[in-house]
Amino acid sequence: MRGAIIASVKKRLPALLLAALMAAGPVHGYNLPDLGDVAVSDLSHLDEQRIGESIMQEIRWRDPSYLDDVEVEDYVGSVGRRMVAVSPQPDRPFEFFVINDPQINAFALPGGYIGINSGLLLTAESESEFASVMGHEIAHVTQRHIAQMVGSQGRSMAWLLGSLLLGALAANSNSQLAEAAIVAGQAGAIQQQLGYSRGFEREADRIGLQLLSDAGFDPRGMPAFFARLQRATRIYESDLPGYLRTHPMTNERFADMENRVARMRYRQVLDSPEFAFVRAKLRAISGSPVEAVREFEARVAERRDDASRYGLARAQMRANRLEDAARTLGSLSEAARRSSFAILLEAELKLAARDPQGALAVLESGVKDYPDSRALRYARIDAEYAVGRPDRAAELARAALQRDRADPRLWERLARAEERRGQRTAYHRALAEVYVLRGALPSAIEQLELARDAGSRDFHELSAIDARLREVKAEDALRRAAQY
Fold this sequence. Notes:
Order of helices and strands: HHHHEEEHHHHHHHHHHHHHHHHHHHHHHH
Strand order of the largest sheet: 1-3-2
Strand content: under 5%
């Protein structure tokens, strides 16, 4: 079976990708659209979106290095959206996510999906430095560099999709795969495979720099960050930081960047408190709990700042030192304790201490202060469930889904609440949407059929289920047809 699969793709894939697929296993597990050959033109916007969605499904559900932390994701997204808002395409959809990888890297996928390695966040010494990388990646998307490269290279879409997918999954998940997928590189090394031209890199520098300035960040953050990475090459020698492998920095680009910054108006820009909190959280959830506590105890002794205390409290909670964590959190300044990061941690501590009512009180107040915080919204639904109010949990989940129906975390919470309520039809309908978002359409069809047969006598509900079932079956048929 395995030999037959490899033989079937051998005609379409180059030797290096074939070696990578042999290390990875059968290719039929990859849920990717077959878009044919795009050698004659650039990718369309629709094709870009379809490719990006397919790759994101694989990263989100199959890559163990994907960081499933909505609080960190929301911070990264807030920085990205701040720059998208001042771009020439402010209404273009973007999605920002984080890869739990110490390497310094970031990458753009087709369709406006931008990944950031946790190592890049921890390496940036200011929020403007971090934002400069985001601006550069956003520019690659808005200028459609990926689509243009695909069109100009004239390679088959199967080759491109395989390279993108393997590059995204290679790091941290399978060392054999990482070694075999030389052409794709490590997680996030998408640009290396696509081979951005120097012209594209200069254009991304120029536009990213303008976005950085227009969004209110310090434009000096861009040359400062790249200069530090350039100095790091003398330390890394042949093992360059990931971002320099995928975005080689030439003297010409660096000089052009510095000249543009010199012509911009100087202004001092302070980092937001959230920048320090998110970095502290990343450190606190890394390594063993004992090591994290030891690191932050040293940081608190040296710096005595709120972010270090917050990091220590989170590390102490990981180590199951709940009383110590509560005391440490209480030592934050009043302003810091009102931050969404501190509010969420306080609620998590109360839940860990089996005080769901106390957690709910904290979260009800926090959601009022931070109505756009997904992390607080999810935690409130979880707290309602924990206090034995699944009806209220389901109500909150449904209300949140009115804002974003493509949120699998909300559908999962709705499914759990409906199951507790004994609403079998609603439970299976919600679970079906989770599977749709995962790209597991046969499982979604099974759940919708179970929903239809669960005993509901509501004509409108049954009609909605039948309509959704027809949609999912049609999409599944298209995907199956595209595989042959």
